[in-house]
Design goal:
Elements: E1 6-10, E2 14-18, H1 26-34, E3 42-46, E4 51-58, E5 61-65, E6 71-77, E7 80-83, E8 88-93, E9 96-98, E10 104-107
Antiparallel strand pairs: 1-2, 3-4, 3-10, 4-5, 5-6, 6-7, 7-8, 8-9, 9-10
Length: about 110
């Protein structure tokens, strides 16, 4: 898994700053999952084109990386993800994230 640091801001959504290393952790992370939070961190496949995607997650915040390497901050909720920079939301269905156009990402790791 790639190591990277990010600092992103999106007006109206709040700022997301992190020294992400591909691993969420700490008491907040455990508390989030114990309260029914969704764990999406891992490697995914975009079934429309077979491209590899990735989600790195801390609590209910995620960094979504599509098959082209484009990165965007998003929020993770039970049942859905919201990615303002990509102007989209996806529905979580088991090991899939289904996008509004009917395409989906499927978890492989």
């Amino acid at each position: 898994m790639a190591l990277f640091n990010i600092t992103l801001g999106n007006p109206g959504v709040g700022n997301f700053q992190g020294g992400w290393n591909g691993h969420g952790g700490g008491m907040y992370q455990n508390e989030f999952y114990n309260q029914g939070g969704v764990m999406l961190q891992g490697v995914w496949i975009n079934v429309a084109n077979g491209g590899q995607c990735e989600i790195t997650q801390q609590g209910n915040q995620g960094m979504f990386i599509n098959e082209r390497g484009s990165q965007a901050y998003g929020m993770i909720y039970p049942g859905r993800v919201d990615i303002p920079a990509w102007n989209t939301s996806g529905m979580i269905a088991g090991n899939r994230i289904v996008w509004p156009d009917g395409n989906y990402w499927e978890r492989i790791q």
